[in-house]
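User: tokens in, sequence out, please.
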């Protein structure tokens, strides 16, 4: 596929997780032929019933398409699907557009881009901001990095998935942008969980608490989604606690490399890591409320007693 070529109508999609499955379904709904592969077979059966071409290996995806979207959990999974480090990698990459929509380290992405280009392929970094519900609605925000010619082909491919795409610059910058956004999101989620726990333990009417938030400046899509879940202790997964933990680890790694101060992130990272230890990894990230509730109760300080 050369620069300026028409957008392909047959798209490869690898990674049918919590977000990947509805994303692939939205591509089908927009009229694309979609060739899909996933490690577990359950999502493959679901997407096949929607009209996708389900195959048994990543190699079969590459054999049928010129553009492949990856929505995978980590770098190891992406390397495996690309056959990186093997002779087959060059055959898979040659003449193909690789669109990576997962969240990885920026330096990893930069090195991967170089290898793909050397192998004769093209690469767009396209992490998304959003969780399962926006993925289902085609309302994700795509953060794009790469060569302009490649972005011109990528934007219309992502149109059924994203309500907006934002060009961030060269490879690596879209992932840095995603990590900065996730720093805010992950600490906001932990803070919201603590506020609900605080209000609940004080015996406040949580319905009134929710109404007060909805009437004020903190009302937003994220609050509208997560606050009712926190109040009801409904932890059906939209964005998993394990993903939040992984995200904070990536952000922390980049922050350390850049010698940045991240005190709020450090606290959130500790809470999400404790959630993993408590066996909450498969629940929604707002289950961090249970982690906070499990912490030892703060004892009054001598100063607070004296001033009471």
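Assistant: Sequence out:
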């Amino acid at each position: 596929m050369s620069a300026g070529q028409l957008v392909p109508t047959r798209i490869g999609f690898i990674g049918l997780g919590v977000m990947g499955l509805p994303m692939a379904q939205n591509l089908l709904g927009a009229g694309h032929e979609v060739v899909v592969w996933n490690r577990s077979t359950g999502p493959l059966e679901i997407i096949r019933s929607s009209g996708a071409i389900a195959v048994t290996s990543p190699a079969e995806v590459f054999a049928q398409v010129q553009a492949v979207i990856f929505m995978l959990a980590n770098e190891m999974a992406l390397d495996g699907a690309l056959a990186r480090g093997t002779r087959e990698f060059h055959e898979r990459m040659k003449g193909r557009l690789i669109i990576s929509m997962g969240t990885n380290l920026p330096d990893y992405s930069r090195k991967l881009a170089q290898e793909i280009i050397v192998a004769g392929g093209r690469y767009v970094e396209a992490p998304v901001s959003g969780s399962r519900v926006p993925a289902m609605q085609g309302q994700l925000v795509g953060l794009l990095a790469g060569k302009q010619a490649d972005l011109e082909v990528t934007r219309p491919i992502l149109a059924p998935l994203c309500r907006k795409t934002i060009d961030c610059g060269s490879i690596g910058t879209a992932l840095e942008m995603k990590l900065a956004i996730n720093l805010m999101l992950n600490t906001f989620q932990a803070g919201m969980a603590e506020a609900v726990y605080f209000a609940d333990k004080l015996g406040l009417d949580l319905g009134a608490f929710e109404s007060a938030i909805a009437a004020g400046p903190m009302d937003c899509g994220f609050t509208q989604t997560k606050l009712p879940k926190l109040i009801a202790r409904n932890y059906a997964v939209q964005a998993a606690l394990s993903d939040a933990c992984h995200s904070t680890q990536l952000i922390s790694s980049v922050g350390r490399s850049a010698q940045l101060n991240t005190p709020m992130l450090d606290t959130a990272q500790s809470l999400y890591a404790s959630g993993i230890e408590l066996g909450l990894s498969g629940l929604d990230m707002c289950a961090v409320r249970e982690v906070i509730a499990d912490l030892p109760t703060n004892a009054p300080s001598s100063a607070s007693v004296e001033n009471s």
